[in-house]
Amino acid sequence: QLQAYGGGLVQAGGSLRLSCAASGFTFSATPMTWFRQRPGKGPEWVSTINSGGGTAGYLASVKGRFTASRDNTRNTLYLQMSSLKPEDTAVYYCVNGHTNQRGQGTLVTVSS
After folding, report:
1. Distance separating alpha carbons of residues 12 and 29, to the nearest angstrom
2. Terminus of the chain with fewer CB atoms < 10 Å: N or C?
3. Residue 49 and residue 55 in contact, taking contact as beta carbons nearer than 8 Å
4. CB count in 10 Å sphere of residue 44
């Protein structure tokens, strides 16, 4: 099971940290991915982090602004978002990298 939380309304230039609580699988052995879905658009890959947390890849438009991390002792995935832009407005959700199971998302709204 996956549950993302931490979204909300923030002004452009602001920051938010999203979290994703995982259960029901061996989190520490599983690469994890953040996706987002902007209004009227399809799902968009944002970031993937390896099981150990040492390596992460990012969508070009968020690279340098977003940082994925994880705490394998707490079975929790994070996405630190800074310098937010209105075009970052989306529902963000986490995905199990092995099974592609998707959790419930959290809405991030960035006002201009």
Report:
1. 36
2. C
3. yes
4. 14
